[in-house]
Amino acid sequence: MSAAAGPRPVSIFDVAKRAGVSHQTVSRVINDAPQVAAATRAKVKDAIAELGYRPNRSARALAGGALKSVTVLTTDTSLYGTAETLRGIEDAARAAGFSVLVSVMDPDQAYSEADLLGRLPHDGAAAIVIAHDETTVRAMRALHERQPGATVATCGEHQEDRDADWLISLDDRTVAARATRYLLDMGHRQVHYLAIPGTAGRRTGWSDALAAAGITAPAAVESGWSVAAAAEAATALVADPAVTAILCGNDDLAFGVLHAAHRAGRAVPGDLSVIGFDDYPLAAYHVPPLTTVDLDFRGVGRGAFERLRAMLEGGPDPRPSWRSPELIVRETSGPPRQ
Amino acid sequence: MSAAAGPRPVSIFDVAKRAGVSHQTVSRVINDAPQVAAATRAKVKDAIAELGYRPNRSARALAGGALKSVTVLTTDTSLYGTAETLRGIEDAARAAGFSVLVSVMDPDQAYSEADLLGRLPHDGAAAIVIAHDETTVRAMRALHERQPGATVATCGEHQEDRDADWLISLDDRTVAARATRYLLDMGHRQVHYLAIPGTAGRRTGWSDALAAAGITAPAAVESGWSVAAAAEAATALVADPAVTAILCGNDDLAFGVLHAAHRAGRAVPGDLSVIGFDDYPLAAYHVPPLTTVDLDFRGVGRGAFERLRAMLEGGPDPRPSWRSPELIVRETSGPPRQ
DNA sequence: ATGAAAGCGCTAACAT
DNA sequence: ATGTTAGCGCTTTCAT
Q1: Which of residues 266-305 of A touch B (CB under 8 A)?
Q2: The whole model's pTM is what?
Q3: pLDDT tens track for B84-97
Q4: Is the CB of residue A124 less than 8 Å from the CB of residue B3?
Q5: Sign of CA dihedral B330, B331, B332, B336
């Protein structure tokens, strides 16, 4: 699909001829090989500039060179967390000269290993999966099993793998516990949890904190991913005057709860405290500003890429460079009304 | 970066041997060439399945075959409109067997043509630019000039190009005028506009409607892209009791205005009507629900890809298949208080 | 309907 | 320090 027809693009041979050297020397120059005389290198670089030469990635890949690409697999690029993670990956990848491919999966479909591999540009191609639901979690496991040296994932759950070097995650469990305790400490007798599908970390942190306080956790209320689903799922919860505090799986759910609470005539935070997760840019400017948890998705994306690169190129394992989750208290949470 | 070492991936020759045919016949089968005996085709397909063969995209591209990839260029993949457009492109691209590359540009940087081309996997590679600011608009022009047969853009502004077949855009101008008139018809004497950087369509529609009503348009208030920037930029505006209606460049800005209005003690919609653009999923669940304009970004993304494909493969020009912008009246707009 | 030969642009090995 | 020779896996011709 080169389409844009036009004259044949300039190749390494054209450059070689122009510079009066062999094509191999040109190859050395564009790959920053050490043993090239400064004068030669300059000549070649001039020729490259004059001709507007650009290396052909396909030829490079085929010849056994580094392809330098990552494929990002996920189910929803519009979700805030996913979009930010993708952005972090892209930032780091670009800086390292990698190109990034995006492959969106259907959350409601079951993928065979062949389906998954078919999304990679070639066998053994590097992949990062942004995992947050059943489909992506399964994909991350399958891909890692098949090509452990070229697969990395970001994921907010599944503590069993937490320490695996190929799995980058934020400690949402600890901060969920902290948020729950914060609510309890203010005098709430009970904290409810509105859950996004599949996430175990936040849910576990929440029940941990409750258990530590000697409180029996109520059943978590299951919600879908959308604000609409949350508003719907939380209807009964917010209508119950005994419910004074709700921890939500993410900010979208929190907004849904706020909406439902408003409709039910419950004042926030007077009658009801609501806490989200993610700290959407909007959270601070919501009316009232949302108490939530800052999650550094972009940093995690960058970290995932760096880890992948270390795997691929055998460099030193990069130090984690993202912020730890942090509870940000704003105006949707407070002590219960006596 | 094939990394994941392992045994050499199976090639077309392995399949050929297994099926007892030449490698060329295998090539014909995987490319759905017509002149292959049904029996042969079946044999080959079996061999492919048994061996788990997957064609190597790089080799294909190099040999002059279709690369089937699109590079999406934009400045911010986290913006709602951009994320949705990207999603639409990805949907359509996947269905057509194309892979999609994402390349994020820095909005504050000036890019040379070489910089831009360097983001494509090879010379003449297909590209879609999601344009919404100076950087991306410039990129879209430069790329289109350089490779008119392989560049498409989505863009909400710049009417001069509106009818170009390579430029897909929504008619935000007309709907902006409609929204303004709606406000005027309810009795507002004046409508103010809080502008996102660079967009001409909405701004023009707004001033058109004002002019048509014989009203001199006030200076538009310039804002950045963020909710924070909008809240800041709108501070003076919302504080002015003479201001009763504000049209905002997008929903983020509208949320910023709502925040500022709340801080200034102005009731919405009693004292102040606010209208956004984009219809974020959250808009309907905001408290109060936001009056805004539905913009079918995902449809536009799909459309952009289809157009590109038609260019590339010379197919029939696809019919536009996205929804027209539509004003959605919710609860942040109403008649001015007498 | 099928096969054989050539070559895409590049890098890896081996020269020198 | 530089040049020469092979191929990477595939699609094109061009045969048969």
Answers
A1: 281-282, 284-287
A2: 0.90
A3: 999 999 999 999 88
A4: yes
A5: positive
